[in-house]
Amino acid sequence: MTEKTVLNDTHRAAGARMVDFGGWDMPINYGSQIEEHHAVRRDAGMFDVSHMTVVDLHGERAREFLRHLLANNVDKLKVQGKALYSCMLNEQGGVIDDLIVYFFDEEHFRLVVNAATRAKDLAWIERQARAYGVEVKERPDFAMVAVQGPNARARVIGLLHEVDRPRIQKLGRFAAAAAQGPHGMPLFIARTGYTGEDGFEIIVPTEHAVALWQALAGSGVRPAGLGARDTLRLEAGMNLYGQDMDETVSPWEANLGWTIALDEGRDFIGRKALEAQKAAGVPRVMVGLVLDEKGVLRHGQKVLTANGEGEILSGSFAPTLDKAVAFARIPAGEPGQVRVDIRGREVPVRVVKYPFVRDGKPCEGI
Amino acid sequence: MSEIPGDLKFLKSHEWARVEDNGIVRVGISDHAQGQLGDLVYVELPEIGASVQAGTGVAVVESVKAASDIYSPVSGEIVEVNELLNDKPETINEDAFGEGWIFAVRISDRGELDELLDADAYAEQIENEDH
């Protein structure tokens, strides 16, 4: 049974090519994935991300619960509307999901988790929440639209009620606030994204989502599909759950060490396993690869290094760079001359620091 | 969706074959196939002079999304490849049945042409795929 977002008919009317994505019928592109990618890098594009799961947490001990549930520390969230990216780990230190948590008030936090992991995430969160008396409430009454690109914020702000504009204009990165959109619709606007460009992710009541989408289109924001979203986030060096990490992978092995807060005395799920792995030495690392020859790096291709074999995680043609890039997980240690097996041919690749692209431009050394 | 030219023959795997003079068969992929693949970014062409068997992989087209083997509809010798695709693989997206041809084969057994689908049968196949 395929689920549909409230924008499904709107995508179809715009000529979108639809695909099954984690059980959802979603637009992969509206004609050309590459043009949509460039539109986001150069101007402004919008994505229907309503398939993602919004979960509200209510309870007096909500913060205490999140200190236990998440590997990053919610105590970094001090100001209303502030957001934090975190992994949610199992006891073995494997990644159950990555998510964003928003702080409303001490008794109300909001999580946005992945669509493909919805059922297991909800089951896990509910199970852990019981001991804290925290209510876990899914919000299917919301749709979500990501508006991304150098001109994205200006386009969104132009549609807001005048009194809200200066406040949303000043919204810092990884912060969110409520505002009135077209026809007075209530919006929750976060300055976050998954493309490496500036922009907003907007949570909107489902009944207003089509009107919001049309207003954005009317102000020159171009619809972009999940295909472009994937190449944009890969260029920006952002992980995709299920491809770059899963329950068998620790954050150390997925280049997510920066999201782990090993602060004194906080007993979060998976901490013991993470500390043990760090003490023993992390066996695998995640690196960026660039292919200077023709060809495309793809998920599952074998990576050959001086220390043994690894594997391509996310890999694709990168439209901003006009060549293929990838994330790979390889054995730790100096990798030597790295090669990728592309259909039986060993092709040399360069190991690089990523992101590959930032603010619309290739990063140095890419 | 552009019209399927009536003079073409097809493999079920979406390659078209156009029989030209002197036993030359030009090969490409259908407009339907390029639409399914999405933006093409790389084409691996065969060597001129290579001998090919009907139904075996001869070239590879890669879109942003996936890599696909291109099968030769007929057996014979590769006599031409579309070098334009090295720099402009998107030509296949823009004109799959024309400028986006991939290679040409000098056919060794004309009987193989009878095994291929005609344009109507191919149109019916993709119609059924869509539903």
TrEMBL record, chain A:
Catalytic reactions on record: N(6)-[(R)-S(8)-aminomethyldihydrolipoyl]-L-lysyl-[protein] + (6S)-5,6,7,8-tetrahydrofolate = N(6)-[(R)-dihydrolipoyl]-L-lysyl-[protein] + (6R)-5,10-methylene-5,6,7,8-tetrahydrofolate + NH4(+)
Residue ranges occupied by any GCVT N-terminal domain in the UniProt entry: 8-263
Q: What GO MF annotations does this protein's record show?
A: aminomethyltransferase activity; methyltransferase activity; transaminase activity
Q: Which domain of life is it from?
A: Bacteria
> InterPro entries in the record, alphabetically?
GcvT, GcvT/YgfZ/DmdA, GcvT/YgfZ_C, GcvT_bac, GcvT_C, GCVT_N, TrmE/GcvT-like
| Binding site residues for substrate | E201
Question: Where does the record place a coiled coil?
Answer: none
Which key words tag this protein in UniProt? Aminotransferase, Methyltransferase, Transferase
What positions does the domain Aminomethyltransferase C-terminal occupy? 284-357
Q: Its Enzyme Commission number?
A: 2.1.2.10
What's an example GO cellular component term for this entry? cytosol
Q: Which Pfam families match?
A: GCV_T, GCV_T_C
Any one of the GO BP annotations: glycine decarboxylation via glycine cleavage system
What functional role does this protein have? Answer: The glycine cleavage system catalyzes the degradation of glycine.
Return the HAMAP family for the record.
Answer: GcvT
NCBIfam families in UniProt: gcvT, PRK00389.1
Family according to the record: Belongs to the GcvT family.
Q: How does it assemble?
A: The glycine cleavage system is composed of four proteins: P, T, L and H.
Q: What is the recorded name of this protein?
A: Aminomethyltransferase
- Organism in which the protein naturally occurs: Frateuria terrea
Give the encoding gene's name.
gcvT
TrEMBL record, chain B:
Per the entry, the cofactor note is: Binds 1 lipoyl cofactor covalently.
Q: Which Gene3D superfamilies match?
A: 2.40.50.100
Cite the entry's keywords alphabetically. Lipoyl
Q: Which Pfam families match?
A: GCV_H
Q: Does the keyword Thylakoid apply?
A: no
Name the needed cofactors.
(R)-lipoate
Q: Where is the Lipoyl-binding domain?
A: 24-106
Gene Ontology biological process terms, A to Z: glycine decarboxylation via glycine cleavage system; protein lipoylation
Say if the entry is tagged with keyword Transcription regulation: no
Q: Which domain of life is it from?
A: Bacteria
Q: Which NCBIfam families match?
A: gcvH, PRK01202.1
Question: Under what name is this protein listed?
Answer: Glycine cleavage system H protein
Q: Which organism is it from?
A: Frateuria terrea
